[in-house]
């Protein structure tokens, strides 16, 4: 797979540059996909043509935008206010967001949509030669990936324009945002078509399958079940559909969770052309490819350049939020050590996959000198067993931080790590299936719900439960998918059908900063209300409201796409032509 994507990015035949200053969401050229229909003469041509949909177009969303929206807003990550990124912590993101994450996310997601549309158009208009099954499979990839982008667009911005054919719609000056209900209907339509035209096994490692589409279809029904509802009740017909499709993946796909949660986030599971079966959809980056096809995530997350050995590693401001940290230092959760170690660099902990040439990595700590009343920085090479010492303020991010090229078979370089990005894992299907079975009940002890909910916990080495509530599912998602960019979207799904409870969850969630210190093996936490004034001790809370539950449109987009300010309208589904 890696070799094929590399070939694609080198053999770019051109770009379709669409000129439309009035509708900037159409002006998203396919960055590395062939534009001439005559290129798609064989089955292999189609497979190569859809390859960049798994990486290049997603470049602006992967990393910073995914992190800021998914985990800082979602309440899993701490941050400072460098370049205004603290606004994601405080729910005060503006259309002129100085961090650039808002604009980057918006442009990248529309780039995914445009690339998928253009590749689909070219497949449909290709010269004779490729088989019908290959064409249908290629189109299914396009529609699946378009639906994946719309999942984020809908949950981030609400009502958005439905763009299904860039060529036809480019000259349409009447395009407006479409009703949110129609956006979800469009997502479900795309995924239904994809499910019916994809193979049950991947054509290449990492490619989506029928099970990928069916699982994401079940998730779409689960999300939509709450749309327009309130008081904690969801639409039963959508819950039933979610249960049907998610259950089919759980019970009939033959797929299982990877046995090692820790290894999921190391390069060992992606050696050669290997991609873990648990990855139903992931971004397939190329450590030997060009800039656009590289994974830059580690550069943003690694807390020290000594980890990467490539000059990057700027993630010292990020780490566990108070709520995530409190979960892990609670003695009641002491057995959840596998996910803790895979997710966070905890002070005085050992990581064998980092700095392997020197025997592994003991997390940096700092010794407190009682004689001088000062803290002395120290990179330790063995555990501290006595005396008082401080961790560096908070546990740092470990997930997706895999070390230097020497730790990864020589692959990788500055802002380029040898690991893919998970967008949709089988573990999510398991928890969503349990959620669909729970439905509108307060709790469930249903055997199927417990089987798959507990499978996620058992893989993590923690005690199974005998009943499940919605709060249990929210917490399990928070821990299982921390720093995978999902927490905000899980919250937004909840907000759809129980906005009062969902807002209360965030409004009472400590989002301040803290110092985590140890003394003789015991942990002590000092909450700091204001990062710029450490003397102000205590937790910090921020308020989210219905007005801030959707992200604002980027200012630059509003200047060129004036229709974004108009009220949404229904979408005419008779225009779709699969």
Write a compact overview of the structure shown:
The chain has 578 residues and is α+β, with helices and mostly antiparallel strands. The chain folds into two domains: 317 residues, Serine Threonine Protein Phosphatase 5, Tetratricopeptide repeat; 122 residues, no CATH class. α10 crosses α15 and α18 packs across α19.
Main features:
single chain; about 575 residues; alpha+beta; Serine Threonine Protein Phosphatase 5, Tetratricopeptide repeat; five-stranded antiparallel beta sheet; about 40% helix; disordered N terminus
Describe the SSE topology.
Layout: H1 2-10, H2 43-50, H3 64-72, E1 77-78, H4 87-90, H5 101-124, H6 132-157, H7 166-169, H8 180-195, H9 210-224, H10 236-252, E2 279-283, H11 297-301, H12 305-308, E3 319-320, H13 322-329, H14 337-343, E4 344-345, E5 350-351, E6 361-362, E7 365-369, E8 374-378, E9 388-390, E10 396-397, E11 421-425, H15 426-438, E12 443-444, H16 447-459, E13 468-469, H17 470-480, H18 487-497, H19 499-507, E14 513-519, E15 522-528, H20 555-560
Antiparallel strand pairs: 1-3, 2-11, 4-10, 5-6, 7-8, 7-9, 9-14, 12-13, 14-15
Helix pairs in contact: 2-6, 3-5, 5-6, 6-8, 8-9, 9-10, 9-15, 10-15, 15-16, 15-17, 18-19
């Amino acid at each position: 797979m890696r070799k094929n994507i590399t070939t694609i990015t080198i053999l770019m035949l051109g770009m379709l540059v669409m000129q439309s200053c009035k509708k900037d969401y159409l002006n998203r050229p396919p960055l590395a996909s062939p534009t001439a229909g005559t290129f798609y003469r064989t089955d292999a041509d189609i497979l190569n043509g859809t390859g960049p949909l798994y990486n290049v177009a997603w470049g602006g969303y992967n990393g910073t935008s995914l992190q800021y929206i998914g985990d800082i807003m979602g309440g899993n990550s701490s941050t400072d206010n460098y370049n205004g990124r603290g606004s994601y912590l405080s729910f005060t993101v503006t259309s002129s967001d100085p961090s650039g994450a808002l604009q980057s996310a918006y442009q990248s997601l529309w780039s995914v949509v445009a690339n998928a549309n253009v590749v689909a158009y070219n497949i449909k208009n290709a010269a004779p030669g490729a088989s019908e099954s290959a064409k249908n499979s290629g189109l299914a990839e396009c529609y699946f990936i378009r639906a994946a982008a719309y999942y984020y667009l809908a949950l981030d911005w609400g009502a958005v324009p439905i763009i299904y054919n860039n060529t036809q719609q480019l000259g349409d000056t009447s395009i407006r945002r479409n009703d949110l209900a129609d956006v979800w209907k469009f997502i479900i339509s795309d995924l239904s078509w994809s499910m019916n035209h994809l193979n049950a096994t991947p054509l290449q490692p990492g490619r989506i399958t029928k099970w990928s589409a069916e699982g994401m279809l079940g998730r779409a029904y689960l999300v939509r079940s709450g749309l327009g509802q309130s008081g904690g009740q969801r639409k039963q017909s959508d819950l039933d559909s979610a249960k049907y499709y998610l259950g089919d993946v759980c019970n009939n796909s033959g797929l299982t969770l990877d046995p090692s949660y820790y290894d999921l986030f190391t390069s060992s599971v992606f050696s050669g052309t290997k991609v873990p079966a648990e990855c139903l959809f992931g971004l397939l980056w190329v450590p030997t490819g060009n800039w656009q096809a590289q994974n830059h995530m580690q550069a943003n997350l690694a807390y020290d350049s000594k980890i990467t050995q490539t000059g990057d590693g700027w993630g010292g401001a990020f780490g566990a939020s108070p709520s995530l940290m409190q979960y892990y230092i609670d003695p009641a959760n002491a057995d959840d050590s596998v996910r803790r170690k895979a997710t966070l660099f905890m002070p005085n902990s050992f990581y064998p996959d980092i700095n392997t040439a020197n025997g592994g990595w003991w997390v940096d700590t700092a010794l407190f000198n009682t004689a001088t009343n000062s803290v002395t920085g120290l990179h330790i090479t063995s555990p501290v067993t006595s005396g008082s010492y401080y961790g560096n303020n908070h546990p740092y991010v470990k997930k997706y931080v895999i070390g230097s090229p020497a730790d990864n078979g020589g692959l990788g370089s500055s802002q380029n790590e040898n690991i893919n990005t998970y967008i949709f894992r089988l573990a999510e299907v398991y928890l969503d299936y349990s959620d669909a079975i729970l439905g509108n009940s307060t709790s469930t002890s249903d055997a199927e719900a417990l089987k798959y909910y507990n499978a996620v916990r058992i893989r993590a080495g923690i005690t199974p439960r005998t009943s499940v509530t919605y709060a249990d599912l929210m917490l399990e998602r928070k821990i299982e998918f921390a720093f995978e960019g999902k927490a905000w979207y899980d919250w937004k799904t909840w907000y759809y059908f129980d906005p009062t409870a969902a807002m209360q969850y965030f409004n009472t969630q400590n989002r301040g900063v803290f110092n985590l210190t140890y003394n003789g093996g015991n942990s002590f936490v000092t909450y700091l209300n204001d990062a710029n004034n450490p003397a102000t001790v205590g937790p910090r809370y921020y308020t989210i409201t219905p007005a801030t539950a959707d992200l604002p449109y980027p200012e630059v987009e509003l200047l060129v796409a004036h229709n974004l300010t108009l009220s949404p309208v229904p979408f005419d589904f008779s225009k779709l032509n699969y």
